[in-house]
Write a structure and sequence with these properties.
single chain; alpha+beta; Cyclophilin; 8-stranded antiparallel barrel; two-stranded antiparallel ribbon; 8 helices; 24% helix
Length: 312
């Protein structure tokens, strides 16, 4: 019943041709090759790195110019003479003898010669010089050094009552625009003998500060031996001690009032509760136990401004 090979000879012609030209699908090799080429071309396009020549050709922005150096040229020189008045707080002193400048038996400590940076902070220097020469309706002469922080600095020039050894509020000083100039705060309190306008350490009475004509003339001088970084950026360095560092050491060594630890704790608690008496009690802390005052002050003429021998 099987078919023989001769049976195909009797098939119609068109059947024999269809059998020889049956459809053959394309070989998978050719299809994979075209697909792989497409994939390779797309992946190579995506993975191309950015042209280095373009990146190198783009000009980099120039670095900002360095700030100009601070001009600490000494344009003015002033002096402060310091003394101790042993009779100032005695109960038997003559009635009406309230001016320290008229102390009967002063004990001189010596003189500080200060070089002032008039090009860096001109208004601060001008006002300080006016207070030394009494051309502002007031003067540092006959006023107290009212606080000493051992190993750091001392403070003078507090405004208030003249009979308490404080500075009479000046009337002829310019408004100090240096206090709003960022360059005025660049110099740090890095060594002994730097003169600085008190801003953060200012303790003038609030009533005096509320006066529209109020001018801050309180100053501090660093005593060392180390720097005072807590003062940086908050007070204005405007000069340095040129002569009299031994006098500075003598002032810094005078004992001060220091409250006991228990008093400090009570004061902190009272301040936490908002008791205003806490701040009043703090005002006597670090006060010298001797009456140190500025017995004289004035200006020393400078023939030619020169740089300070050792800049801060």
């Amino acid at each position: 019943m099987g078919f023989s090979s001769t049976a195909t000879a009797f098939l119609p012609h068109h059947h024999r041709r269809r059998r020889r030209r049956l459809y053959r699908p394309p070989t998978p090799t050719a299809a994979v090759t075209r697909r792989s080429l497409l994939l390779l071309s797309s992946s190579s396009t995506l993975s191309l790195p950015p042209p280095l020549s373009l990146a190198a050709a783009a000009p980099s922005p120039p670095p900002p110019p360095p700030p100009p150096p601070l001009d600490t040229t000494v344009t003015d020189r002033v002096y402060l003479d310091f003394s101790i008045c042993p009779t100032y707080f005695r109960s038997d002193r003559p009635l009406g003898a309230s001016d320290l400048a008229a102390c009967e038996a002063p004990e001189p400590l010596g003189r500080l010669v200060l070089g002032l940076y008039g090009k860096l902070v001109p208004i601060t220097v001008s006002n300080f010089k006016a207070m030394c020469t009494a051309s502002a309706g007031s003067s540092y002469k006959g006023t107290l050094v009212h606080k000493i922080f051992p190993g750091q600095f001392f403070v003078a020039g507090r405004q208030g009552r003249r009979d308490k050894g404080e500075v009479k509020p000046p009337t002829g000083l310019a408004r100090n625009v240096d206090t709003v100039d960022s360059r005025a705060f660049v110099l740090g309190h890095s060594r002994p003998g730097l003169v600085s306008l008190c801003l953060s350490e200012n303790d003038d009475d609030e009533v005096i500060k509320l006066d529209p004509d109020y001018r801050n003339v309180e100053f501090l001088i660093t005593t060392g031996p180390g720097p005072c970084p807590q003062l940086n950026g908050r007070n204005i360095v405007f000069g340095a001690v040129l002569e009299g560092l031994d006098v500075l050491t003598t002032i810094a060594s005078i004992p001060t009032y220091k409250p006991s630890e228990r008093i400090r704790q009570f004061n902190d608690f009272a301040q936490f509760l908002g008791d205003e008496r806490a701040q009043s009690a703090r005002s006597i802390w670090n006060r010298p136990l001797k009456t140190i005052y500025i017995s004289d002050c004035g200006e020393l003429k400078v023939a030619k401004p020169s740089l300070s021998p050792s800049l801060p």
